[in-house]
DNA sequence: CTGAAAGCGCTTACAG
DNA sequence: CTGAAAGCGCTTACAG
């Protein structure tokens, strides 16, 4: 491999000078610059990032921690992140916790040891060890999707999104509304969305049957199963609408209803959250909420870049959303 | 940051010894090992990857070059790759060419400079500059989805998959079959899939109207547009089936047909390729081909790991596929 | 405007 | 079984 020393020799300058022209800092005479550039181009020389990083403590790499890599939300977010960091010459180092909370902590430390310049975490839960690890790493850090005390967080407005959706369902005349959610160790999806739903229901003077509340695990199959349980638990007293906290589970629920010959929305209405591509093309098309995941990714990246410049903006940012009314309600 | 020197001092050994216990090589007395481990744990010491990489020329990072990050295929493949490399302690450095051929080359060089231990490229085209760049990099290298001469390639069996699908359409009694493809600078999707289609058609003694052949750009919208053009170009003489080379474009085509009040499959049958999640939940459910993307990713990673061990296996691997018959034909 | 030298944090022959 | 020393390829005060 050709190194800075080779370039220096070939261009007849010191490696200090080579470094200066490559990084565009300090004084360099025009003739020296030209000689160096010529050699650099001729050899196709690329500086060693390890050496540079060892010396400068910066790597040009952003660590991204995902709960699950092959997910529509994740890939949208990563797309958004990549769009802005790539422009600034950063790369993304990707890790996947597979929804294992322990791995979130492990990966933060790992990314730290790799000298990443910053980390974006798509958190799924909040706990003290996680918070401590983040603090120890002492790195520019963004949490996306969950509010983490003391760290810059971009969160979706789960509470109000759920309220709006529930409101809309009620306005359509539904009084018997079921709920398919996820576990409450996930503050955003599990707690906030449920809270928005329940409170809106109660404010409308309605009630939710215990047997109409089920929990899945984000998968399509779990939506199918939850729907099945709700239907089987309430013969002769079916809900007329189901509020589902994710599109994927909603699609699973729809699948079960269709199998049972129940018409959507005439017999049972369904809503999702997430605005997955699929939500638009299932039939009936699914009423859902767009969280603008890509934009959230863009924003996360921009905030991280700001933190890299020392502009300290430790705040909570609430992401916009948009209710998309389609044919499933 | 605590370094190997700190650990050495605290454990009362040389840093040579610390290195030995950390990397588990060379002789170390039990007592020395214990002292070192105790200090390492107490301090939470993590070795600097840059320093290590500078010294050893290995980084523990695998570079992955994607044509588009936020795509179902890509995320499945990456999921597969990650599953195997993570187990071996490798990380993934992700780059996205946004379908820009120039960037494929640029990223190979960039990843090289970052001392990645190997590269997996989801290629979209083949050209000499690309091939040269790969050769120059002189790194363990896997091409996924396109056959690249001289480099280990995992390819989908586009030709036979197309043949099988076309065959199936013909067997259902269709004689007037349209085609929606992509540009032929993509040898796998653009050329091979088309070839499999055309040849099977001709062997069956059928013909394809010029106006029934259209090209999209992988997007749902382009499938919609292509379908529209086909329908509008052939009033009174519509095809009875459409072979579409990707699920997304097929979904777009279905959307247009439904809007026009054409029934699928009674009026026009549709097929896709890719087995996207969506294909199962659109209505009617889409007949398609599963390419086992995740397994392809797994395999790519395994082959790369083998190459890292110097087991030289420069070969072409043909990936399996499976025709999924559903309701759109 | 330019270069010699120190140093970033590791690993690895080499010598004992 | 252990350590001193060289060196990986850079950048950055410092001195001129």
Describe the structure.
Chain A has 13 helices and twelve strands. In chain A, helix 1 packs across helix 3 (30-43), helix 6 packs parallel to helix 7 (128-137) and helix 8 runs parallel beside helix 9 (187-203). Chain A is elongated, with a radius of gyration of 26 Å. Chain A has a six-stranded parallel beta sheet with strand order 2-1-3-4-5-11, with helices on both faces. In chain A, strands 7-6-8-9 form a four-stranded parallel beta sheet, with helices on both faces. Chain A is α/β, with parallel strands linked by helices and 329 residues long. The first copy, chain A, has three domains: 4-47, lambda repressor-like DNA-binding domains (434 Repressor (Amino-terminal Domain)), CATH 1.10.260.40; 59-156 and 293-319, Response regulator (Rossmann fold, 3-Layer(aba) Sandwich), CATH 3.40.50; 158-290, Response regulator (Rossmann fold, 3-Layer(aba) Sandwich). The model of chain A has no long low-confidence stretch (mean pLDDT 92). Chain A binds chain B through residues 44, 46-51, 53-54, 59, 61, 69-72, 74-76, 78-79, 82, 86, 91-96, 109-110, 112-115, 136, 220, 251, 254-255, 277-278, 281-283, 294, and chain B through 44, 46-51, 53-54, 59, 61, 69-72, 74-76, 78-79, 82, 86, 91-96, 109-110, 112-115, 136, 220, 251, 254-255, 277-278, 281-283, 294. Strand 2 of chain A pairs antiparallel with strand 2 (91-96) of chain B, so a sheet runs across the interface. Chain A binds a DNA duplex (16 and 16 nucleotides) through helix 2 and helix 4. Chains A, B: Residues 2-56 form the HTH lacI-type domain. Chains A, B: Pfam families: LacI (PF00356), Peripla_BP_3 (PF13377). Chains A, B: One of its GO terms (molecular function) is transcription cis-regulatory region binding.
